[in-house]
Amino acid sequence: MTATPGVSTHGYACASCGARLEYAPGTTMLRCPYCGHEQQVAQAGRAVQEHAISELAPLVGKPAATAEYVFTCAKCGAQTTSDALSLQCQFCGAPLVRQQAMPDQVQPEAVLPFAVDKDGVRTALRGWVRSRWFAPGSLKKVSEAEKLKGTYLPHWTFDAGTRTDYTGQRGEHYYTTETYTDSQGRTQTRQVRHTNWYPAAGTVARDFDDLLVIGTDRVSPEHLEKLEPWPLEEAQPYQPDFLAGYQTLRYDVAPEAALDTAKVRMDKVIRSDCEQDIGGDEQRLHTVDTTYFNVMFKLLLLPVWIAVYLHGGRSYQVLVNARTAEVIGQRPYSPLKIAAAVAAALALVALIVVLVVVSRN
Ligand SMILES: [Zn+2]
Ligand SMILES: [Zn+2]
Q1: Where are the domains of the chain?
Q2: CA of 22 to the centre of ligand 2 (A)
Q3: Are strands 148-181 and 282-311 parallel, antiparallel or unpaired?
Q4: What is the pTM of this model?
Q5: Distance (Å, rounded) from C-alpha 290 to C-alpha 163?
């Protein structure tokens, strides 16, 4: 890791009380958490655009999120080394947001700003904890403010036109009647299914739009995928002000690797298109030859509240979609509560047995 000094940060000082301005979820405002002073988020002055995949060529082979940068806090002067795009000063809490483009990186094109604020996420977490059976007491603490981190996570989106030539076989079922002798020695008949295979070939075409691929491996992809779907059409052109007060991870999944992942997913859909096109009762695919054209991509930041809590020496992560308030998380079970529930169930059974015995006498 090499540290590159000299990342400029915006002050984000509150013009009214001198504290700090943070992006206020669900608005187009920066707001001071102390005095409530508000200021408009700067206008990006452009629309969200997709980029041609050829724009990646000069970046191929460049490291993604390996270089660390030194942020100098415009408020207290403290220096923080980080590979994030934005974070909070650990000494005074002021937003540290990288303002200028990163020379060796794909720039975020769009951001889906936070819509669920801290109160909203606490409500969502309390609801989630209440709906969990046998949750230990430590889970109840998950909605405590200091363990909540608003984080923008990098995602890639891909668009592509595809045209696929395939060859294969179409299977058509037919039935014959067979006679056989059953165990009693009687002659019986039965229907037997067979398949006739015929050669098949053809061409299918499909356009893919905004196929989403996770751009970080620091958060469990299985959990992150469960936060989908995202209202992608509400994404705004990237503007550093939206990041003020939040942590923003840089991508560590390179765009080429993400495109490979996207193609694997496109291939699944294309294969099912081919089978549909073949028709019949069963299909076999021998060759599937896809041409991709107009491949476009963009780097998009999606807002997630991340809560971490400790239980039994293990840390558990809970994610909240900061647009839809959907909660996805790992959770432990309380052995004590399960034991208590089992004991209560056994006691109930014993009580019923006693009542039945008593009523018979
Ligand atoms: Zn203020
Ligand atoms: Zn500071």
Answers
A1: 3-155+211-252+299-336, 337-361
A2: 14
A3: antiparallel
A4: 0.82
A5: 6
